[in-house]
Structure prediction request, 413 residues.
Amino acid sequence: MTYVIVGGGVAGLVTARRLALGGASVTVLEASDRFGGIVASHTVGGIILDAGAESFATRGSTVESLATELGLGPDIVTPLAAPAWLQRVAGPAVPLPATSVLGIPAVPLAADVIAVVGLRAALRAQLDLVLPAPFGLNSLTLGDLVRRRMGSGMLEGIVTPVVRGVHSAHPYELEVDRVAPFIRSAMRSEGSLAHGVRLLRANAPAGSAIAGIRGGVHRIVIELLADLERLGVTLELGARVSSVVPGSARVGRRTVRGDVIVATAGLLEPNERRPLTLATLVVDAPQLDAAPRGTGVLVVDGAPGVTARALTHSTAKWPWLAERTDGRHVLRLSYDGSGPDDLADVARADAATLLGIELAPSSVVDVARVEWSRPSPESPAPEGITSVGEAAGGTGLAAVVAHAESTAARLLS
Prediction:
């Protein structure tokens, strides 16, 4: 068995590893000058930080199992048990409701829900409990499901900013069965969306829904590459593939033969990709020692005076990182699109607004800008070609790794 994997992000590397462990001959072709895709590192203010993904969902234990196989098990860590906050359109930021799944509340009329969306939207969401059980159950997207069961106020007031913060996509772009695979069965069992969420929360294992790696999630790529070299996988950088057909990939004038697996959206048309910009600030700001907004702030569309869609207070979220920063704080802000030209100034102003503090220009030790491009959920794979990665498996490391593992297992069988 011979395979050619086009794309050296995590999906491509995980697929390559599993195929090689199964005895296959594998070549990985990566167009850029490094492997790992959006799992990457950079140095800001002298601190090595994740430049892309900095956590993973613990659902299914897929990433944890991979990390453990790679020798990183002892370094798997959970974030500080502090709430995230939400910046509303009107009024100051408030803590996110405690009992929810992707922002969908288990108790629509809970005080912390009303504090976010207001009484009118909460009352509309409460109608979920009296709607016929099958109503909305056939919704394709998460956005359709929440809107039909709980109304647009709940969708845009809580669920959308949470989902965008987690998946970098609007709920209307995400299929229910991908992003919340057990929600339909829970609704059938309990008769409503809210009670389905309550069941999922009750059945969830104790502990955090996400985890990270001490030293950064990018360490997974380092260990993957070491394992692939040990397994004899051919790894090529700067290998830009111009076309693929079943059985071969074209690199310049060279043809690389083998069953082709596309693990990148690089072969897709530019208008099928969504840009995302991250600004990382390292600041000297003692007023942040108390973590005034917990682990970070999500932003509702239309919140005045804020351009960012989310802020992570990284040194509050990850105790291991706080131990390495000599009292400085790391803030990470995300922006839709290519972000503003004056990103450093905008990010500092946004951070001050979202955290409710003064943040003078002199407090900023360093700032870094990183731009990523992600496929839209509808991005198609070339006909007759196996595909892995976000476009095929869904957003987030857990979904990407699980899909890559299952795809490799299917090919080996």
Summary: The radius of gyration is 22 Å. Residues 242 and 250 are 6 Å apart (CA to CA). Residues 98-203 form a domain with the protoporphyrinogen ix oxidase, domain 3 fold (CATH 1.10.3110.10). The chain has three domains: 2-77+212-268+379-412, 98-203, 272-374.
